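Let us begin with a simple case.
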Amino acid sequence: MPPLRFLIITTTLIGLLHYYIGSRLLSGLDWSSTVLWLGWLALALSALLQPVAFLARGLRSETLRDRVSWIAMTVMGLFSSLLVFTVLRDGLLLAVAGLHATGVVKVDFLWLERQTAFATLLIACVISLIGFFHARKLARVIHVSVPLRNLPAALHGFKIAQISDIHVGPTIKQPYLSRIVEAVNALEADLIAITGDLVDGRVHELAEHTRPLAQLSARHGSFFVTGNHEYYSGALAWIHELERLGIRVLLNEHVQLLHGEATLVVAGVTDYTAGSFYEDHHSDPQAAIAGAPAAAPKILLAHQPRSAEAAQAAGFDLQLSGHTHGGQFWPWKYFVPLQQPYVAGLHRLQDLWIYVSRGTGYWGPPNRFGSPSEITCLTLMPAQD
């Protein structure tokens, strides 16, 4: 679809959804005509800002680009909550109307519409404020023990610090990333895994802001796999930049780490969709494990959880993924299973363990409600047979 046509269709749809919100909520409020007109003006501005959130990237001035993105993305989060709760309100009113029609309950509909309209506005605003606070604060550390079969004694207690889906870009800059790096280094992990979607922007735009990654410190170093957003942002240039910062990028390959007297295989695949961007980047867990010692524990870094079936077939013991953000803010986590087999946390597929991070940053709206960001500290433990 041509970009202009897509923009027109998207803007029209967004405008209609804003009109739906206004007609359902503002008409139910017993406020002055001036306040109601201001409400309609705010909705109109919000409708115009939604496409601007994505078009702002084309602005030449970085300061203007970032300020516009901040406003547009924040408004987008509020709009999302307003839309969801307006739909839920209409569902409630419809159910009550049915009960009223059958004589089960008697309701003053004028009073109910006013109260629920105000409650919808209040709840959406409160959730957006709480979500903003949780999105901008430093991700908390989550400790997870992973039981692996036939784990050599030298690897008992091996610690992996995982960060994922930071999305350095218009609203996430160097100070935000520096705090993450400090928290990761404080874990004194044996290995650091970065499972994709690190950036939202080109190298020349964001190199200054990803510089703190050079300070990551772990016994066996830091490893990175591409996510879909790297491919939107010029993956080849980012691969070169990350390697310049001292981070090993794994492209359908593995390394063998000698830890004490034991060998640990750490592999990485390109993003599940990478083949549609570069033919030679097709995601391939089999290629990533080729030549690895059979008896060594094998860990796969794969951005999307849906790589799990191929990882299990290839013989991996543990897959570390991200991508889902755990839904990021309510109620979107309930829609993630439409695309991904796992939303967040530790799961098992036959002999393969899969851990899905909720992400260390956020994408789009600075909003995290019901799905907090995380820095994950995974500890390898022997399975209790």
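The second case is a distinct protein. As before, the sequence precedes its structure tokens.
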Amino acid sequence: MGQERFQSFGLATPPALDVIPADDAVALLKSGKATRNALLAYGNGRSYGDSCQNGAGTIIDMRPLNRIRAFNAETGVIEAEAGVLLSDIIAHAAPYGFFPAVVPGTQFVTLGGAIANDVHGKNHHRRGTFGCHVESLTLLRSDGQAHYSSATENERQFAATIGGMGLTGLILSASIRLMRVPSLDIIEKVTPFRDLGEFFELAEAADQANEYVVAWIDQLAGGHSRGRGLLFTGNHAEHGSHVALRAGGNLSVPFQPPFNVLNRPFLTAFNAAYRWKKGRSTEARQVGYQGFFFPLDGVGNWNRLYGPNGLFQHQSVMPQDVARRVVPALLAAAKRAGQGSFLTVLKRFGGVRSPALLSFPRPGFTLTLDFPNRGRATLALLKELDQITVEAGGAVNPYKDARMGDDVFAASFPEWQRLEAIRDPAFMSSFWARTAKRLEARHGAAEAAE
């Protein structure tokens, strides 16, 4: 596969050692000769941790399966192969007045990856997760058969594959329902808030009035400014563009710096400048969709700025009734540890249920932090953040993770065994091996000792 590194976006885990193209994997699976735990699909490498890696096996480059097969301009249902990028779906559907109902923070994810991780966006309070808009999918398993499933046909496999992190087989294609929009442009409004108390006062009303809501937190601010930030709200403009722009930008980080560029002095200055630039006007303004949804896509390989050891991202969700206590506790833990987060995002999850068997979003508030990998000190902080989260009845996001313990995973997803029961025996990830399989081994040993 040449010199390309098939690595997670966090760059804190080793790259894949063995990679095969999708066509070879399809042929292997159809032959029925795939061995246990040998395979895992790899989309476009935007997962932060090791849920997209199979350190003991082979990963499958899915990007060659990138055809859009059909699009219904009346209903907005699009059928595409699993390797199609979200940016391609946007470009194809935009002239007809459609946009994905849910988009994550990057458009450079594959359709299969968006389904496997049941990704969410800035409008979970209205639209739920990506999986809520999947009509059907076709899955190739190691029995050599292509399995069609939907919410009404082969329902258990359908539910397990959405949010199943690629463990139920190889997603070949899927049909999803897009959302009709008046234009791609967004009417954005920025509201500064003094502290987290003010944010929580604003959050519910903002959700009720807007399609998209997200908050940025100045994680390094202290004293009377602790917890300050900016609340971004957005709605599709009635009059605006129906033409998708070329995905990405002209800026790029061309090489891996030998040290972490995003150090504390830089972050302090950046946060001050960002808050001033974005918060200086509270008037609503019309902006392009890429800048609103995918601001970091304009800088290629921006993850390299964290230095040669990469980064860890920690995303937690906690029940709404404890969020006013837990969010400040998480931010305080990071501050005590002397760790600065470049991207600190806070938003509210609504009550729209996902069809997924395992799905990270659930009603409450979610906080996302990312830290340069400084070895044991960073791992100790992340473990403390895990503990605060699970003790509050919350969960840690598995597809943003590269190191959580199996106990944290079990507390976050107590029904993990239901996915293990449907997992294709030929598919395994480094994440599943270090969490679910260890739990399974521990349970087996306990039963044997009784």
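Residues 439 and 445 are 10 Å apart (CA to CA). The longest helix spans residues 264-279.
Keep these points in mind for the review questions at the end of the chapter.
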